[in-house]
Amino acid sequence: MPEDARRHNRSLALQALFGSDPLSRADLARSTHLTPTTASDLVSGLLDDGLVEEVGRRPGRGAGKPATLLRIVPDGRHLVCLDLSDEEAVVGAVINLAGAVVTRRTLKRNGRAGDDAVDLVAELAESLAADTDRPLLGVGIGSPGLVDGHGVVVAAWSYQWARVPLAEILSARLDLPVHVVNDANAATLGEFTFGHTTAQNFVVVKLGQGVGAGLVIDGRLVSGERAAAGEIGHVVVDERGELCTCGNRGCVELAVAVPFVRQRIAAAGADEAARRRVLAGAGRRLGLALATVVSAIDSQEVVVSGPPDIVDERFLAAVLGTIRRRTIALIGEHVDVRASSLGTDDVLFGAASLVLSQELGIA
Amino acid sequence: MPEDARRHNRSLALQALFGSDPLSRADLARSTHLTPTTASDLVSGLLDDGLVEEVGRRPGRGAGKPATLLRIVPDGRHLVCLDLSDEEAVVGAVINLAGAVVTRRTLKRNGRAGDDAVDLVAELAESLAADTDRPLLGVGIGSPGLVDGHGVVVAAWSYQWARVPLAEILSARLDLPVHVVNDANAATLGEFTFGHTTAQNFVVVKLGQGVGAGLVIDGRLVSGERAAAGEIGHVVVDERGELCTCGNRGCVELAVAVPFVRQRIAAAGADEAARRRVLAGAGRRLGLALATVVSAIDSQEVVVSGPPDIVDERFLAAVLGTIRRRTIALIGEHVDVRASSLGTDDVLFGAASLVLSQELGIA
After folding, report:
1. N or C: which end of chain B has fewer CB within 10 A?
2. Interface ipTM
3. What residues of B are in contact with residue A292 (Cβ under 8 Å)?
4. pTM of the model
């Protein structure tokens, strides 16, 4: 069998085992459409690699020999996962193949930017790699800004990065495969692979220093023609709104990015009604942009990822109400708007999901 | 080999041959990741079925025997394709596997609706089926309105259809597989399979009695959670606009559906400047909705399908200008807005594409 066919089949087998109850070799052959012989050969290789283990036998049905059951070894590999979306600190964790956090580390940024920030990220990754004695599968990173398909951060304003080949630099320093994705897309991957959603069509909006979105359509994350899918931060939702740094007025980012909303909350002071109006207004503006997105892709769910002082019930209700008012009933009546089920760990889990898919073909 | 694996491999082989220069058995094995033996067995079956034929030999490179080349037999199967998007007539064609129109027929509607319109559609399909003596692969239909994944027209206002199982009814009458898709999605499939686009991420907007869109993302047509993807007709683009039948004000449909634009053109009379303002205004409103869609999916192209009296250079320029003003430069600067490369045949070719994908696995 050609080598790329073998790799493809290996991914099919791992995919079938991932997040599933233990399976027999025959189950695996059935669900992957491989012949029993091919499936059995693959399993031998996976056992040798320490990725899969036997976990007992299934009680026989009828006269046949009870089948040996297989599962992925939870600590067969560890993953180093980094979240760079916070303004104050770089955050990381070692995560295992079962999606459990093994260890966590955080390094304060103290304003570090440019090459100095690249060093900070490398230090965090090295510390985490030293925290585990298990074989490392790779490093996954969720970064703010535009990230291309080769792990180059094309532009990340908050780190003053422009065309920084982050994957290549870190891969050379750590001698490990490194994969980088935009933080909103990471949050989306995390929700899809490790979160509570069962939808195959949904949008994750990440409110941070800016506003980004990730789209899952028919079960796949959308990257777009220039890896810029989900860049809704500068869609105009108020033509008579404030002037944005991008040159337009009334961008989504001015309406719902964390620093701007917190400014308006601070201005409201102790006036609870004013605070609520701020959140409802921000939610309405976000809903205006999302109504069109939800209509275009017929999304079942909108997941909002952001700090709990902003993403509260009132905010979510305003987003939902606006989407309902501005879409056809068939779509609007069925859409659900909720906070991320992974809380603030969504980018870390997304980074883990990225490494799993790139290194093992598990989506 | 299990039967579904065989069907899957057969689709891989046909897909590789479709729209390609003739290939050898070895080429096929390489491009499908199948073993040479499996590929050779598949080819034997396809030759027996009259789907593939040998077309000579490739001049040998080096000492090897010259390889026999294979291609899909253009008239190995014929497809009956129907376009129901026109208000005045139902339009059909027989199309072959090479995408050539073999014959065309049109039946006037004369206001027929409900069951009577179903009969009209069946008559057209039967006439077309009788026009050819080649084996028929199936019937493909592009219908206005909402169509579910089982070929049920959930709602098509212009035919007064509500939950009409069009695929099932026609399949029983014609004794052929019948596949139905929304007309905007059909136009999108047509553009993708037979049109001039090379983009993997694009939007097709169909202006007809209403306004619908089809989205291709990473090379696949998006269906959405309830098969309602692309239903942007009732996205609000002008909160202070006219009241729509849906209960909202200022829907996209009021701005750019063909009957409404033609009314405004008629009101402009011989005043050429007024006519231009009408088209520029309609284009701007469509651009408002599309700016968000293009940002969300990072689309490379917007294809507008509609009558040439509306979709002219001025209209397209207004759409493009609005998208550019309302998206980030990275996306807006690279997006292209153009008319459909298949003209008014786009729905027919999309119906053909649907049958090819459903019956032969060719996407």
Report:
1. N
2. 0.72
3. 232, 235, 289, 292-293, 296
4. 0.78
